[in-house]
Amino acid sequence: MAATGTAAEGGGEIDDDLWSAVGDPTRRRMLDLLLSEGSGTATGLSERLPVTRQAVAKHLAVLDRAGLVHAAPAGREKRFRVDEEQLARAVAQLTGVGAAWDNRLRRIRRIAETVQRRKDAQEAPDAQEAQDAQDAEDAGDDRDVPGAQDDGDQS
After folding, report:
1. For 97-135, how does the pLDDT look when each residue is reduced to its tens digit (9 = 90+)?
2. Distance separating alpha carbons of residues 83 and 113, to the nearest angstrom
3. Which residues are CB-contacts of 101 (< 8 A; sequence separation ≥ 6)?
4. What letters, b where the CB count within 10 A reaches 16 and e where it falls short, cover 10-43?
5. Which position has the higher pLDDT, 149 or 75?
6. Quick check: pTM over 0.85?
7. Burial of 79 by CB count in 10 Å (0-12 exposed, 13-18 middle, 19+ buried)?
8. What DSSP state is assigned to residue 3?
9. What residues form DSSP beta bridges with 145?
10. What is the distance between the alpha carbons of residues 73 and 76, in angstroms, rounded to a whole number?
11. Largest CB tally within 10 Å, which of 79, 94, 136, 143?
12. Distances in Å between the alpha carbon of 29 and those of 50, 55, 94, 141?
């Protein structure tokens, strides 16, 4: 099995075929059933899933190519078992990618918080200037009100 992939953060290699295989919800459900029952056939799995036997066989072929299941002849059918070592490899990759994204999101949050603090700091002097202007305007309003007395008024 050839692993195609990209370098993951932290130096590990991400196996795209493996990820593609576990990325499908039907295939994940199939893995769950095989793990809980120990093994299974395409016919047996199709009875427990909302897809045809032919669809199950195609999904099993994808899982087999990714190394997640292995087949052994069982009469006229094949009996599939989960390769627990390959499944553990998939879990490790998922965990590594999850941790990498957690780190990225923490960095994005710190950047956003820094930007917000700078914006708040810039707005604070502007808010004070606006308040000072309003206070000055309010103080000048007494002169424009009829009957208001001004210290310089001699009437």
Report:
1. 889 999 999 999 999 999 998 888 888 776 667 777 777
2. 45
3. none
4. eeeebbebbeebbeeebbebbbebbeeeebbbbe
5. 75
6. no
7. middle
8. P
9. none
10. 7
11. 79
12. 11, 13, 17, 75
Task: Fill in the amino acid letter for 52.
Answer: T
Q: Which helix (H) or strand (E) covers residue 20, if one does?
A: helix 16-22
Q: Which one-letter DSSP state was computed for residue 15? A: E
Residue that has been written with the tokens 């989960």 in this structure = 82
Structure-block tokens of residue 25: 């919800």
* Residues paired with residue 129 on neighbouring β-strands, in sequence order: none
CA distance 34 to 75: 18
The CA-based angle 142-146-151, given to 5 degrees, is: 50
What's the rounded Cα separation, in Å, for the pair 97 and 14?
Answer: 9
